[in-house]
Amino acid sequence: IFLLLSTVSMFLNTLTPKFYVALTGTSSLISGLILIFEWWYFRKYGTSFIEQVSVSHLRPLLGGVDNSSPSNSNPSNSDADSSRQSVSECKVWRNPLNLFRGAEYNRYTWVTGREPLTYYDMNLSAQDHQTFFTCDSDHLRPADAIMQKAWRERNPQARISAAHEALDIEDCATAYILLAEEEATTIVEAEKLFKQALKAGEGCYRRSQQTQHHGTQHETQHSEYDTLKLHVQLCCHLYVFQLMKEFPLLSMFNIHENLLESLLELQAYADVQAVLAKYDDISLPKSATICYTAALLKARAVSDKFSPEAASRRGLSPAEMNAVEAIHRAVEFNPHVPKYLLEMKSLILPPEHILKRGDSEAIAYAFFHLQHWKRVEGALNLLHCTWEGTFRMIPYPLEKGHLFYPYPVCTETADRELLPIFHEVSVYPKKELPFFILFTAGLCSFTAMLALLTHQFPELMGVFAKAFLSTLFAPLNFIMEKVENILPSSLWHQLTRI
């Protein structure tokens, strides 16, 4: 060993600056090639090649087994193909569980001084009101003519004043609706006004039937009455089951989401499963309510006894695998929901319109369904342990999708128009660069810098290299000196000869 150290020391002393230039240049070239290959592999497959080899081949040899991240061996390709055809990228939908401006939103403004709704969101609501509650024959009735102008007013007080003016003329159903949504300060007051609106609408509908006029005006009034009855019953959360029978084509209202929320509140999980079996279909647009409710039901079967430590030791059971896959499916559809359900991000009042797969839909879902997840023991724990695994399963780039159509790139822009400015809009989680790519990038940069300095200052860098190597071998030299002092000279002479 002593002779070997002496030989190494003599070799280092004979090295010229050209050697250090060649050494650092070669190291920089090799690390650069490794970095380029790692980056290309990551862009194509979404994972580090070195990391994949170490996990797949080296870890089993060392006795490590990873059973905590299940593989989804049956992706729904037909689901993705159908969704690509049936769902537009950034279509804005009415929030089926939207709140009342007077009873909730205005009270929030009074307390905090913040506006919970954007002008863009309220303008969409104004368009909805004009579509639902106006018709071509409104100019024939003075009260309806006033309300036709009221829906277009931007000033809330002007709308409320117009509604009172219409009620002074006659019992106007749409005036009651406007007052229930924007003037009533409590839900009880709103419900009372909606019932008055329903009564007024029924009276208007009966009078139109008595005229025996079955022309365009009668058909328009009939459609308006049906829409009014639907809106009133939805807002009052009354007759939900009857509505499903009376109005089978309610895709534009998403009434099945109201039904799911009502059944979850009643803890009627069997009925929830029956509704999901009908609406969680390939041909229908998905929503966070459908995907996360399906995940909640599957998590409910295993969450009370789920333990991540036990699952990593024994692997996931079939029921646990189904629950985890359902969570991964829901997270891929809308990745913003888990942070709200896990209370990692604060909730705000939901907007009146939502963008599917966006932050606005996540807020609307979590606002009404967080209590249902808390009610199921261990469901949030299972979600916490598994939701981030979704992003390891989706191919890179993440927008390619796995079970659903590609994630729209315009959701962030649309959400910023729907959500208030004081809310920090959640964006689609980006896949972090693997450690080995960062390591090789740092190594490449460091060796390239050394190569440049060695080329410019060969003598100085040679001195630094010799000093570095001397410092590196100093502990070993120290140990050898101590061993030489302790051992007898004859024994040490025989060891050196060996």
TrEMBL record:
Residues 66-86 are annotated as: Disordered. It is found in: Membrane. Residues 66-80 have a biased composition (Low complexity). GO terms for cellular component: membrane. It is a multi-pass membrane protein. The chain crosses the membrane at residues 20-42, 433-454, 460-480. Keywords: Membrane, Transmembrane, Transmembrane helix. It holds the Pfam family ST7. PANTHER family: SUPPRESSION OF TUMORIGENICITY 7 (PTHR12745), SUPPRESSOR OF TUMORIGENICITY 7 PROTEIN HOMOLOG (PTHR12745:SF12). Belongs to the ST7 family. This is Suppression of tumorigenicity 7. It comes from Paramormyrops kingsleyae. The lineage of its organism: Eukaryota, Metazoa, Chordata, Craniata, Vertebrata.
